[in-house]
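Bug #77: duplicate submission created two jobs. Keeping one. Sequence:
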Amino acid sequence: MKRHARFRFRRRGDADFEISGEEVEVLRDVELLRSVFVNLSSNASQAMHGKGKISVAIRTERSSCTIAFADSGPGVPEALAHKIFEPFFTTRSRGIGLGLALAKRIVEAHGGEIALLPSVDRGAKMVLTLPRASASLSSEEGSVPQIRPSRPN
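Kept job's structure:
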């Protein structure tokens, strides 16, 4: 059975969200993708100590969609960038280092990719690429969440 869901991003702390892009359907597990989005937005908010700007940009292409999370925090030091998806790697005193490792596994299990882009000036930018739903897929092959840009209240 196909299942449609709308992803909403809530404010965390005093961080401002800016969400842009168009609606897109991807054939995936709604709850698992939601956990990835929550993890990325939570990491961004924590890196900025709850103050700053988080931008989520959704871009569609013929067979895929790209969702980019960018923040105005300090960014990821170049020397650590290659480690952030490793299990148990963390820079936080209270973290266990599984959030990004699990996010990577979830995205890859859904036929997608996740990457940290090099910082040009300041902040971090995580980019997810997921295959789009095909109209020819049967309804028994999975759920189809709708990822919609929405403005926080």
